[in-house]
């Protein structure tokens, strides 16, 4: 049996396992181990498993994952995430569509704490959907804003998506974090612009919220100052070269925990749950990475990445056309696969092609993460849509999907802008100090 045929059978088996709802890490592990055993030898497969597991487990760069996740979980347990939303709510909630826009701002702020889209959608859904329902927001707008705003969690740094991409492609985590800042802000502003336009065109979609006095706005903003300061310190410290990403994660997690304890907003029970959830999430990410490092050699032995690269580069459509085809593949895969699964499955195939065409790998990483975001709200597997459904069980699933589609098209516009103007992503990494 030829290596290519073995590789094709392995890929089909992987998709079959995923269709059966086998967890991504275990599906990749089984296919990778079996594939390397067939194309090389069982001894080599188990040696590879041992070496890759040890290498990943001892990687200092991966410490950012549990630390930033802990930072977000403690912020949620202590109520800091609620105060972020309250500040945005007080300042812009009184304008038309303001509560939905405040949700987007709250999601962006929380994204800068935890780096998780699911956590952002879940947390902001719990604190904002009831308020928007109270002021008679159209359920399609309110749920769409929460689901789409949650996707900012893997674009605005710190981002677990960027960390996984960096590990898989041997790129700088710090440069990727910086590259996500301006695109994240751009997407956040595009979301707010969309909400404002929808609320003006259809006044019943997003009525005005309650007016707040200057004193109330100041008090709400003052309550969010500690967490805003911590976010600026950690991300700003990376920018000026004062912190490495690992050090920034440690400082951020330590300061959030210290402030919560001093302010008496964190109990031992809530801290225990925050630590437990952080360990669970970190273990999941590590299992996916270990499985990916076992699957990638199998794909390399099968020569499928080489054959796909030869096929794409042989097309007479130029580098931009090939990039468009790659991004289209991500959009199609996003209809069926979870984001991390897409990332680890496609990087061995697409990354060498992109680098060979002369595209900047940091810029490509931002494009990939942005298209992964689109998959989070794409039917029928949009994870964030089902997260919102769990928070708002009385709203039909079709209404939530209808609500996120305008945001999906706005994200497509953001992808096009990034392709046309790469400096949106590359300006900060190329001008970073230190």
Please give a structural write-up:
The structure is a single chain. This protein is mostly helical and 434 residues long. 79% of the residues lie in helices and 0% in strands. The protein contains 21 helices and no strands. The chain has helices spanning 3-19, 24-39, 42-57, 64-77, 80-92, 98-114, 117-134, 139-150, 160-169, 173-179, 181-201, 214-239, 245-262, 268-302, 304-313, 318-333, 339-356, 361-375, 383-391, 397-420, 423-431. Helix 1 packs antiparallel against helix 2 (24-39) and helix 5 (80-92) packs antiparallel against helix 6. The protein starts with a helix and ends with a helix.
Order of helices and strands: HHHHHHHHHHHHHHHHHHHHH
Q: Total number of β-strand segments?
A: 0
Rounded mean pLDDT score? 83
Shape: globular
How is the main sheet built?
Answer: none
Percent strand equals: under 5%
Radius of gyration: 22 Å
The class by helix and strand makeup works out as mainly alpha
Q: Segments where pLDDT lies below 50 for 5+ residues?
A: none
- Percent of residues in helices comes to over 70%
Task: Give the terminus-to-terminus CA distance.
Answer: 53 Å
Summed up, the helix count is 21
